[in-house]
Amino acid sequence: MADNHNPTSGAGSKDLSASMDGGSGAYDRLVVCFGEMLIDFVPTVGGVSLAEAPAFKKAPGGAPANVAVGISRLGGSSAFVGKLGDDEFGYMLANILKENNVDTSGVRYDSTARTALAFVTLRADGEREFLFFRHPSADMLLCESELDKNLIKQGSIFHYGSISLIAEPCRSTQLAAMNLAKESGSILSYDPNLRLPLWPSEEAAREGIMSIWDQADIIKVKFETRYSCIQKMLLHWYRYSSGFFMFQ
Question: From CA 119, how far away is CA 106, in angstroms rounded?
Answer without folding.
Answer: 26
